[in-house]
Amino acid sequence: MKPNAAPPNQLVAENYDEFRRVARGVLNGDAQKLQIQPTDLAHAAAIKLFALNRVEVNGRTHFLSLSARIMRQILMDEVRRLRAAKRQAPPVTTQWPGDAGAPLDLEVLDVALTKLEDVSPELARLVEQRFFAGLTVEEIAIIDGVSDSTVKRQWRAARAWLVNEMQAGG
């Protein structure tokens, strides 16, 4: 492990309040339709992170990026479980970070994000960092070693691509 690397369990303990805040943000909108609450999502993600004892986590922002991917996987498993349990299950929605606009169907977003991973893994990672980890433009710029304006431009491009893909129906 590198000298500045911290074990995931230490990072979960140090960042747990923010971890729960991110879970609340992801579950805004239709959280009541799911059988998972923000604290449950945070706990499930923490358990998975604790199991990753061989993963090298270099600081808070890297930890939150990794957490974003894990929360996304857990959340999508829960959405699929809900849909499998009901014939006409309604969509589970959320919203873009910092935007009170039209709701987004989480499953449609996940499908589009998976396609974006094939087209541009960097943009998909940016969306996970912003959407699921709640990282700011400034934090992502530091992680990637680029300017804030570069991250803003990439965020606009990723969001436009996803909106277009979701409107096209996948």
Molecular structure report:
- The chain is an all-alpha fold and 170 residues long.
- It has one domain.
- The protein is built from eight helices and two strands.
- It has a two-stranded antiparallel sheet.
- The longest helix is centred in the middle third of the chain and has 26 residues, at 60-85.
- It starts with 7 loop residues before the first helix and ends with a helix.
- The mean pLDDT is 78.
Brief account:
By secondary structure, the protein is mainly α. The chain has helices at 8-14, 16-26, 38-50, 60-85, 106-119, 121-132, 137-144, 148-167, and strands at 93-94, 104-105. The protein has one domain (8-167).
Major sheet description:
2 strands, antiparallel
Poorly predicted tracts of residues: none
End-to-end separation in angstroms reads 41 Å
Mean pLDDT: 78
- Total count of domains: 1
Number of strands: 2
Structural key phrases:
single chain; 170 residues; mainly alpha; two-stranded antiparallel sheet; globular
Write the layout of secondary structure elements.
Blueprint: H1 8-14, H2 16-26, H3 38-50, H4 60-85, E1 93-94, E2 104-105, H5 106-119, H6 121-132, H7 137-144, H8 148-167
Antiparallel strand pairs: 1-2
Helix pairs in contact: 2-3, 3-4, 4-6, 5-6, 5-8, 6-8, 7-8
